[in-house]
## 1
Amino acid sequence: MKKQVLIMLSLLLSSTAFSQINGDYNYSIAVRGYNLMQMPRILNQKEVGKLTETSFHSGMLKFNDNQISYRLSGSYLKKNVQIVNNCLNCEEANGKMTDYSFKLGFEKNFNFSRIQPYFGFDIGYRYNKFEGTMVSKNIQAMAVETASLAATGVDASKSGFIASPVMGLKINPIPQVTLFAEASLDFFVFYERQETVTLDINNTRTFNKYNKSEFLLNPVSIGIQVNIGSNR
């Protein structure tokens, strides 16, 4: 019995000692190697909940204070996308999407150990833009009037405030290196601007603007952080 108690005490002491070593690093630099995330809706896009896989498009700088870390994060993504509008003429759009964000927040660990669950909260700014062309896929319309099927140039953007609660798990194989996985839910409040130009002899231009909001689920983000600035 005494031997078991001694073993338990030694494990607790080693865990506490490790946490104190890890807490002696003032700063951490992190990069997200893999993300599974929901992007903002483009126009009247079908399959709004479809998730996008990305890699190495975001990073963080953390300022550590015992169990709390203050985090400054940023992301940038530019990729070709194809969407289908959920509307009568079923337009298909092809183009390039640009998305970036800046966030400031915190995270707090639940315990002192090599495996640390944590929660956090970030707020910041997000910008999303789509530039491309759109054509109708309505077969009946094609048979009636071919001229009306001229391609349409599209320039649509969203910019605004973002708030993100975060839940995650960190593993510390050594004090200088931490592996982490986290999930978040983005609440995006934005100003939306949509401009279209018919690419024919008339060059008919339309412009719409909206104030909207949407929730974006990010089920998993996996990365690595390096702890630097020891004060020991």
## 2
Amino acid sequence: MNKLLILAVLSICTLFCNAQNAIYEDIFDVMADGSIYKIYSMIDDFDAQTDLRNQKRKTGYSYDFKVGSASYTLKTCIFQEWDENENEGFNVLSLYKNGRIELELMQPDIWTYVYSGGSAIDFRDYTDNQFFIPIKLSPISLAMVFLGWPYGGDMPYMTIVVATEKEANIVFNKRMGLDSIKTYPLYTMKVQTVLEEYDSCGKLCTPPVFTEIKASGYGTLQLKKQQQ
């Protein structure tokens, strides 16, 4: 057999084996009654130097959607000291279920709009709203992916909230940037975990690092574990 052909076959086999051997960790679980089981190692605290609850807010926009038989409304606000960025994103997200507050999250920076905002990539092909990217996990559960503001010098926060017919809760918050999305065969997001850095001559000195978050196929999301 031709040596080049043998090498090509071996390369394909190696890639397949590596893919098969990849380790994925559950990000959360959904119980039979629709309650959400959080894995707290998947949820980092936001960097906050002050008590954000006392910050004056400027009301933003709202968006209505349904998860199974439950009606949800997302309401957004921006802190007044950030109001020059109100066309880019929001500091506060509040989820109302059937008219009652279910969850409120806030951060000192902002979540940016997934298109026509601060995101370097336009994700409008994957969403029906500007605020988050929806991932339908089952007929009665929905994941909402919120993208952080892309500051220089650090990765933004990527926040994932899951809503079911029973409740809504945060399940993921890490410094990651969304790079791309595949919807087949399973919904998969390629995410960047390390920001690339260049020296004074423009030479790459710290390469970017990527991993992925994918739908498990049984109603949850999984994070591909990065090799140490």
## 3
Amino acid sequence: MKKQLVTALTMLLVAPAMSATSLDIGYKAYTSDTKSDNPGAYDQPFVKLTHFNKAEWGTLIAYVKLENPGEISDAQHGKDGKLTVKSLLIIDKQIADSSFNIWAQNFLISNRTVMEDNFYLGVTTNQKFGSLFVNAGVGLNYSAAHFDPTGESFDGLSGYAVVINARYPLSAMGLKHSLSVNYEGQIDRDEDHMSTLGYASYGHQIITTLKTSVSDSFYTKLHLTQFDSWGAAANDGIEYGVAVGFKF
């Protein structure tokens, strides 16, 4: 019995229905208005390692992103740029044979000036409308944050989180493309969370990405992000960028 249990657990962990790991190398920039409103925003390169795993139990997405690796880009007003580490983990555990999932998500952003960690726990649903795939969910938000210049910190429940992720495949000019739109919002944040990072009660980001597969293992990406009171940035702004990626 013990041997059968170990075998079953091993198959769950190492024998997914679909698994992929990819590496993105890219560059992101901000509009001039965004830089004026957010002193921490500046153009910089990034490297991102992503793993996706889909199995009978559900899906797992994880990435680690290094922004300004080597601190080679300078920040605004002649200040030295900082390495920022961002990590994301999303688990959707399917509930029986339904289209609903138990949803757990953690996002961390950290550099020498600021740290913020958001943990969501809730429910998502997967829906298909022809070729359009939509994942949407709602849950509680537990946050931890620290802002070094003021010494302020926060650790506790901070309102609610809502996500809507949509993906649509298409073909053009003999190549396969994927257009995705990802919305993430936080609602009714705790006042101490707001004061620590200068946030409003509501904040969000909307990421639009066009991925083009050049071959089975090589692709390009264009992204446009609109955010407001998000990612340790108190004000709204627009980020855009380009990347090349390799799947292995």
## 4
Amino acid sequence: MSTSREALAAIRARLEADDSGITIPLRWHGEPSDLLPDDPAPFGFVIFNNEGSGGGPIEFGGGRGQNRYRNNATVEAYVFVPAQSGLPLALDLAEAVASRLRSFRDDMVSCFSADVIPIGAGSSIAPPGLDSDVSNFVAALAEVRVTFDQIG
């Protein structure tokens, strides 16, 4: 059983572990970050979208505050690389993120369907919370479906 904050912490720990194989810095939605440097370098921007339980409890515990709900969330990891590096590099780096979460399960979260989606020119997207211009980047998206249980 976990809260959305604990589920996000479990995902973040998995992605930022020393042995993760992810070689780019990750920026997290909702956290302050520096402006992008003048010399472009690859980076990731991660959004954790809690979508709620979407229905009633999956297990009744005998009253208010004792029922178990299964919450759904989506982890969206946008990977940006300088335009001259090309979309194949963005796809490879997004795959590194997706593979780190693919079929990951612990006592907090279960991850499913980690997909990599090519986006192309950074000017065609505007992830919420990313204030700097990304028009000189190309992007790919690692999208992961997550569930976590919560008592409520």
